[in-house]
Amino acid sequence: MSETFPYQANGERAYRNNPAIQLFGNRLFTDQTPVEFLVEFLLLTTSPKRIEGNGSFDDPLPSEDILQDWSNSKLEYAPKSRLNLKLFSFLGSSRLESRHKTHREHRFDLLNILKSKTALTGIGNKDDVVRTLENLFLGFQGAGSGRTWCAQNFLPVCEGFLAGERIWKETRARTTQPKEWEDLLNNPSYFFETGQRVILARGGEVLYLQICNALRQDKEIIRQWAEESGVMLDSTNNNDEQDPAWLHAELMRELGSLMHKCPKAITELAEFIDSGIEPETAEKTDFRSDSPRYVSAGWCPVESWQEGYLFAVELLRLCKSNLDVIDRIYLLETACAMQVLRSLAFQSARYTPTNHFAAWPGYRLAVSAPEENRPIVKRVSQQTVKMIEKQIFQAIRNEDRGIALPDNEKERNKVLKEADNRYAGKLFIKLAKRLGLVIPRRGAGARFVLNEQLLRLLVLTVVPKGGRITYGRFKEIVERRFGLVFDADGIGQAGEWLADGNRVYLPNDTDNWLQEMLEAAGFLLRLSDSCAMVVEDPAAACP
Predict the structure, then answer these.
(1) Cα Rg for the chain, rounded, in angstroms?
(2) What's the gap between Cα 365 and its chain centre?
């Protein structure tokens, strides 16, 4: 049986009823979008938190002392709801049937109060000012267009945009027929459900716990693993990515400042609209020091510390990169989604009974050119898409490694079908298609490719800041950290990993498309016909 962090969860109902949750943590789910993985992760870093027996803390991560003393205790956090801000920004883009009378009236009141507090020093109209603010905040919509207004999320460019899940209960409202907004506030959890986790479905919590779990590991264990796996963590130029204490301190600082990169005026406006013009809603639905509303953050597999450590390194590099606010957020969003894919692939490689592929990390995903015209490369890439789904399929059925399944065959089949479709193999494929890592989105012949966003993520998280590495080393690190292969040798290994075990032999120019893609993006510096460098800063590649 897979051990779980931060507490042994085998007694939890979710654990007992779903083999994918047993294996991958509570929980990675198909309906959670990439931006919502990031939103939930950042909610944890910015919200007040507490650990049973270790007190509460506001820092992005637990201190080193807390991490080392953490034993069989749940992590809880208290996210804000920001109902006023969401109502102000998203009611106009929500489903018509979800715009309850009390919502429309309260928004009308918010607009009037905002106008009354707006002072114009020159020519202008207060209605135009309010409309401009509406458009401004709607422009930061991150996910959920078409949903009920309270189930939508902002792009997380600042702390003022981070909000926990609230699901409007239409049926309850029809039954009880509340007349005023105050009627909703008298029992906010009844009308605005917080416990369903259908939008922020816990995936960001799993990623956060993976990092906490990784940073608890002994330094010598990290060094030995880094050497044996070949993930090539940087230990030069005052960087020691192989030291969890150093990584913890750097991440603590960078995550602490991440939500302050956006102009301060945006956060102040968001806070003013949410709690400044009408404070009662925030007081009754958000965190208060005298009455905190904590929610549990679930668990992750203990074995996932390895992928968690890689994710921590990648987050740090993205936080330190020279990017503007929006670019960094989009890349962090992509990094979170790629971490979910890696978590599924790494853990399934550990638990697949028929996986005898010895090279770390236990699988190879053959990446083809976006406009691939070689049938053999397409075929291998397509086969690795099917094989990774098969590996996940087999892993959640591996009862020899402690996966618990119902004895009743009918119930067993039902549980496994649910896991396959929403928490395991289909999750991998659906999320990979969302990222553009797998094409086409619909139809047969799905294969692995790269787009500009994924390529940029790989370069910024593999090449040291301001540095350069050889093109061959770049491919080797990507292979070891993500299992992605591009050239003749790597795709040959992918052939060995496939069920038939046959090695594929391809010409040496198989990965020319990748060099061309790197060069077009400004990341490749050609020193000679036989030597090229991948650079983190495109300006360094300019002649």
Answers:
(1) 24
(2) 21
For residue 84 the two structure tokens come to 């006023």
Nearest to 316 by CA among 324, 306, 308, 326: 308
395 lies in some domain: yes
The pLDDT, as a whole number, for residue 543 is: 54
- Residue 92 has what pLDDT? 86
What is the model's pLDDT at position 96?
81
Report strand pairing: 141-143 vs 153-154.
antiparallel
Helix (H, G, I), strand (E, B) or coil at 484: strand
What SS3 class is residue 7? Answer: coil
CA distance 403 to 236: 42
- pLDDT given for residue 118 in this prediction: 87
- How far is residue 188's CA from residue 267's CA, in Å, rounded to a whole number? 25
Non-local (6+) Cβ contacts of 34 within 8 A are 333, 334, 336, 337, 431, 434, 435
pTM: 0.96
Residue 406 within a domain: yes
Q: Which of 212, 462, 502 is nearest to 321 (CA)?
A: 462
- Cα–Cα distance for residue pair 59/81, rounded to 1 Å: 20
How far is CA 26 from each of CA 301, 354, 488, rounded to the nearest angstrom? Answer: 9, 26, 38
Q: Which tokens belong to 186? A: 């008298």
In the three-class reduction of DSSP (H, G, I as helix; E, B as strand; rest coil), residue 300 is classed as strand
Question: Helix crossing, 126-138 with 264-271: angle to 10°?
Answer: 110
Q: CA-based angle 359:363:369, to the nearest 5? A: 115
**Chunked in runs of 10, what are the mean pLDDT values of the chain (543 residues)?**
89 92 96 96 96 89 95 93 95 85 96 90 84 93 89 95 94 94 93 90 97 97 96 87 97 96 93 94 76 85 97 97 94 98 97 86 96 93 96 95 92 96 97 97 95 97 93 97 96 86 83 96 89 86 58
Q: How far apart are CA 112 and CA 122, in angstroms?
A: 20
pLDDT of residue 291: 60
- The candidate with the shortest Cα–Cα distance to 425, out of 398, 386, 367, is 386
Q: What is the dihedral of CA 464, 466, 470, 476, to 10 degrees?
A: 20
**Is position 439 within any domain?**
yes
Q: Give backbone dihedrals phi and psi of 5, rounded to 5 degrees, phi first.
A: -125, 140
| pLDDT for position 290 | 55
Q: How many structural domains compose the chain?
A: 1
- Cα separation of 383 and 385, whole Å? 5
Gap between the Cα atoms of 11 and 348, Å rounded = 22
Q: Which domain holds residue 370?
A: 359-541
Distance from C-alpha of 42 to C-alpha of 332, rounded to nearest angstrom: 10
Give the model's pLDDT for residue 540: 63
Of 131, 91, 136, 138, residue with least CA distance to 115: 131
Whether cis (ω within 30° of 0) applies to the bond prior to 361 is yes
Structure tokens at 341: 């894919």
CA-to-CA distance for 450 and 430, rounded, in angstroms? 16
Tell me if 288 is assigned to some domain. Answer: no
Residues 6+ apart with CB under 8 A from 17: 415
How far is residue 73's CA from residue 97's CA, in Å, rounded to a whole number? 42
